[in-house]
Write a structure and sequence with these properties.
globular; Rossmann fold; 23% strand; alpha/beta; binds glycinamide ribonucleotide
């Protein structure tokens, strides 16, 4: 049995999709959902699906090891970032395999400030013909860990950033849970 903790800052459609994918699975359990944003809709989605939730402040995240202690007590095997926007500190990257989903084809459109809608706005502004998703390991720099999986979608001339966001979310929902499952059982390279 492998245990996942999901970290999410916003709407949480990926978090919900992951929880639903593993619901009833005897090998993988979504143990808890963690957020830096007490208004994150991700918290409501998780609670509705019976997953325990935790919120934390910047101070707790960067200047204490309370979160590490709790994750260790809960015997978490992997942290999954699903729309989590803070840089993850070293005390966590050293302790757990952590994977993130990014809404672009890294190394393009990555780095600080490149998240969510800002990515899709930049893609449309630059008249890209395609975009996609990247699932990667997390280290202490934004979007620079080893890439595990990428998938592409076309960007039409008429696409708005919202249209691109919709295509990206479809790709994320299709691939992220399956890739998490594969990584859990193959271990980090
Ligand atoms: C997702 O598109 C995810 O790739 C992105 O935030 C969105 C969260 O959507 N993450 C980043 O931009 C991280 N740099 P959700 O809250 O509906 O899952």
């Amino acid at each position: 049995m492998k245990k996942i903790a999901i970290f999410a800052s916003g709407s949480g459609s990926n978090a919900q999709n992951i929880i639903e994918y593993f619901n009833g699975n005897r090998n993988v359990i979504v143990d808890s959902l963690w957020s830096n944003n007490e208004n994150a809709y991700a918290l409501i989605r998780a609670e509705r699906l019976g997953v325990e939730t935790f919120t934390f402040s910047r101070d707790e995240f960067y200047h204490s090891i309370d979160i590490l202690d709790e994750l260790t007590d809960r015997k978490i095997d992997m942290i999954v970032l699903a729309g989590f926007l803070w840089l993850v500190p070293r005390y966590l990257t050293e302790e757990f395999p952590i994977i993130n989903i990014h809404p672009a084809l890294l190394p393009k459109y990555g780095g600080k400030g490149m998240y969510g809608h800002f990515v899709h706005e930049a893609v449309v502004k630059n008249k890209e013909k395609s975009s996609g998703i990247t699932i990667h390991y997390v280290n202490e720099k934004y979007d620079e860990g080893n890439i595990i999986f990428q998938a592409n979608c076309d960007v039409e001339k008429s696409d708005t950033p919202d249209d691109v966001a919709q295509k990206i979310h479809l790709l994320e929902h299709e691939h992220f849970p399956r890739v998490i499952e594969e990584v859990l059982y193959q271990g980090q390279d």
